[in-house]
């Protein structure tokens, strides 16, 4: 059993948590959405500066919430890849420094492995193997979870991530940032069958379509064209557009996740990332999974969006297995999840 303090600063959330294996003892998340809203998206330099300003206070709060002190901590973790390098460096440098000063082992964590571990926080009985559908602002992946540190990416997006598509479509309909929650809300009042939008299939050179990969740029362009046409004709049916777009994304993700789970004989699908909050995706995936006798896990929203509890949970599992990172570990903007074990000393 390990109690880990983790820092997560890979994008626009400054997060600190303390977790004992799969039990969350404290979970502090400070969102920077307000700081980035005027720019309509995350500005990397603004994100890094905000992390520097907020991090120390967030660490103090995490200890306070958990009513623990340094002597209760077995290891210090920080997200080291993938993400915005300047932002990652803030948490990583702080984490390594604290580990050194407090004489604790340091565990670098891959952000996507963290998203996978979010499912263990809400379903502690979950055991690999299972399929993880990871849908966030930066990623859309189907990951075969074999064991701690052992993953295979079976499918991914060829262009925009699912959350990015929500954000871009919201921007072109002038709905503000972040787009996912607004579109989700509007979609509830609209007709998902109002417009026939493409599901974003990826063609194969030998003909036919890729079973697990997705593409959302064509869908985004289709919404753009439709919006321009409808705008010229009069008022924009925003709710119907939102509902039809959301339905196309939900259908695309559901079809690929179910195909993957069935082809690989996996009986559970754990969903992670901010788009896991989407009500359309939840409905489609739940219904399809029931039809095929598959278990679907949607962690609560606070564990789906970026947080440090999921990072601490992954780190605790690694620490229990003796996986520790060198203090020379650097930040990487890109890193395949298949390479996670490179973060630990042999
Ligand atoms: O996982 P996350 O907090 O951050 C990373 O990208 O790592 O995901 C944020 C993304 C944004 O693109 C946001 O628009 C989307 O998740 N999102 C949603 C919903 N809530 C957040 N997308 C669709 N429906 C939602 N309800
Ligand atoms: Zn994330």
Structural features, described:
The structure is a single chain. Helix content is 43%, strand content 18%. The chain has 346 residues and is α/β, with parallel strands linked by helices. It folds into 2 domains: 3-119 and 305-343, Nucleotidyltransferase, domain 5; 127-303, Nucleotidyltransferase, domain 5 (2-Layer Sandwich), CATH 3.30.420.40. Strands 3-2-1-4-5 form a 5-stranded mixed β-sheet, with helices on both faces. A 5-stranded mixed β-sheet has the order 8-7-6-9-10, sandwiched between helices. α3 (85-102) links the parallel β4 and β5 (106-110). The longest helix is centred in the C-terminal third of the chain and has 26 residues, at 238-263. It is globular. The model has no long low-confidence stretch (mean pLDDT 94). The structure holds 5'-O-[(R)-(carboxyoxy)(hydroxy)phosphoryl]adenosine and zinc ion. 5'-O-[(R)-(carboxyoxy)(hydroxy)phosphoryl]adenosine is lined by residues 11, 136-138, 163-164, 166-167, 178-181, 184, 273-275, 277-278, 305-306.
